[in-house]
Amino acid sequence: MFTHASRRYAKAKKGRCAGGVHKMEEDVKKMWRWWGALAVYLVYCVLALGGFGKNQSDEPPAEPEMQTPIYPVSINGKEILVGKTTVQALLDQGFKVTVSETSGDYEAVEYEIDPEAKLEKGGYYSGGTVWITDSVFANISFVTGMFRSKMGDATIARMDFSLSSGNKAGLGQVLFCGVPVTEISREKAEEMFPDFTGDPYMWFSPASMADYEYFMAFGTEDGMLNRLLIEKRYDVDWGSEGT
To answer: pLDDT (tens digit, 9 = 90+) per residue, 29-66?
Structure first.
């Protein structure tokens, strides 16, 4: 049987035991929090190292982008690069360059260009013609850059040779990739450009050739080249088309 003093001692002892148990529980909680933080850190390290290893070994290095080749046209030994050559360069090489417009009474009016005429910036202009002989020609389009410029400074964006009409005596002066156009048959075109595609009467550049378009058409009877189109694609203001 407890006395009054014994009961106070027992209560005090019980209080000390409860305090000890409470402190131990706090220590256990702290320990679990520490282990939890360590586990998160280890997982992060594993993921980071895994990603590093993947970038270094599993993924191949990025390949440099392949530039679209520019196939040249030569006329009388003078090279023309669509997308590079300017209108003024054609004039300097002695070519006659004209433009066609429709008059008020809907008649076509053709005149030689004025290389000093001002053109709007970022425009695409069609209706031009470069004359090789009196009957052999190529229709051309040209573009302007980021600023207003003279017509002579515009860049040739498109050349379309029609080779099936008129006097063909001057066609031997026209070379495509060093080969006279009079010698390019459907079979020869495939030999020159094995990565192109088409059918027995056409041979053209693949869609993967994003910057340029090359198109060749051939006669149904003789299988020889009768049209050659070379075009550089531009991001331009189509509202400025025309001269």
So the answer is: 566 666 666 666 665 565 655 544 444 445 555 544 54
Phi, psi of 143 (to 5 degrees): -130, 155
Residues in the chain: 243
Q: Nearest 5°: phi and psi at 59?
A: -90, 125
Task: Report helix, strand or coil for 48.
Answer: helix
Contact 166, 135 (CB under 8 A): yes
Nearest to 128, CA basis, from 95, 177, 175, 104: 95
Token code pair at residue 139: 């229709």
Phi and psi torsions of 201, nearest 5°: -120, 0
If residue 158 lies in a helix (H) or strand (E), which one and from where to where?
strand 155-162
| pTM of the predicted protein model | 0.69
Q: Which residue has the tokens 């993967």?
A: 208
**For residue 187, what is the enclosing H or E element?**
helix 186-192
The set of residues, in sequence order, having a beta carbon less than 8 Å from that of 88 and lying 6+ positions away, is 115, 150, 152, 153
What average pLDDT does range 189-206 have in this prediction? 96
Tell me how far the alpha carbon of residue 234 is from its chain's centroid. 10
